[in-house]
Amino acid sequence: MKFVGNRNLGCNISTKHATDYLLILFKMKKLTYLTFSLFSIFSFAQEVSKERINTVLATLASDEMKDREIGTQENENAANYIAKLFKENNLEYCTGNSYLVPFNYKGKTVYNVCGVKKGKTDKYLGFSGHFDHIGTSNKSGDNIYNGADDDASGITTLVGISDYFKNEKPEFSMVFMAFNGEEKGMLGSRAISEDKELDKIYNNMTALLNFEMVATESQFGKNALFMTGDEFSDLDELFNQNAVNGLKINPDPYASEQLFYRSDNVNFVKKKIIAHSFSTADMTKATHYHNESDDLHVVDFDNLTQIINNFGKTLKKISPKNFNPKYNDKVKFN
Fold it and tell me: CATH number, domain at 90?
């Protein structure tokens, strides 16, 4: 039998050679498909799963953690759990030989938690939230202020971003800070912002994004947050220019409440670092705020997972070249 491979070249190929030729083509096709499949798997390996988000948030907001009130054993347990998550993501210590950064509260040593992800440059982006909450009530039955939204959701968000970049090297270096004592007057963020051992990071910090109550769908819809103090800098505009998959930072709908000056970000504003808080809280509906009902049932895990992954994808796009927000002359530093 003659197999004509190319009439112009006049190739006469035997049956055996033709069969071998087809087998080679088939194997090459399979190899190409396998290579593409592996590429697809590794391309999306950094996606943070809803199950992971659920596990982190549910652990922080569990009854076993009680209220995570500063000064309690449960508060220290929460700090150690966050440190464990930082270790899993191969973060470096911010200072010393531990993720736990101590400060004094009423004569007792308590902790913030801090970890670093080195990027391609020495310019830093900061990501923060607070892990403490307000205690228990005298109510019979469920008297635990679990603080799922306030602010286990914020801690879960920064952990999720560190998850996303576990096997990536971002353009910016990143610092992840879990603050303690916010509910008692932003004590932890004040202490760590004044820590001279971290000045090497602060002096190179382009911006701090503080996550405060991001468990629910915002009044702007899903995949959307608002930024406190949006009138004071162009951070939201620069972020939105690079945002992916419809993620959007909206203006603060509660500007008259001056939330910009009432959350942990303010201690970094005082250092003239671009620092804003980001939230999804719709305060016209948030009956769970500082209530025993702030538990897992209020969390929209699909929305939170989408926000975390879209933050990760957006952060992959930005660099010191296209993201350098500035304050305007409206902001007050004291």
Answer: 3.40.630.10
* 125 falls within a domain: yes
Same domain, 64 and 28: no
Q: Identify the residue whose tokens are 């820590």.
A: 195
Rounded to whole angstroms, how far apart are CA atoms 101 and 79?
10
Same domain, 162 and 57: yes
Given a contact cutoff of 8 angstroms between Cβ atoms, the answer to whether 188 and 267 are in contact is no
The answer to whether residue 325 is domain-embedded is no
The verdict on 16 and 142 lying in the same domain is no
Based on the structure, what is the number of domains in the chain? 2
pTM metric for this prediction: 0.87
Q: Classify residue 328: in a domain, yes or no.
A: no
pLDDT in tens, the chain (334 residues): 322 344 343 444 454 454 454 454 444 444 444 444 444 444 444 799 999 999 999 999 999 999 899 999 999 999 999 999 999 999 999 999 999 999 999 999 999 999 999 999 999 999 999 999 998 888 887 899 999 999 999 999 999 999 999 999 999 999 999 999 999 999 999 999 999 999 999 999 999 999 999 999 999 999 999 999 999 999 999 999 999 999 999 999 999 999 999 999 999 999 999 999 999 999 999 999 999 999 999 999 999 999 999 999 999 999 999 999 999 999 999 8
What is the extent of the structural domain holding 28? 3-39
Task: For residues 159 and 272, state if they share a domain.
Answer: yes
Residue 326 within a domain: no
204 vs 240: CA distance, rounded Å: 23
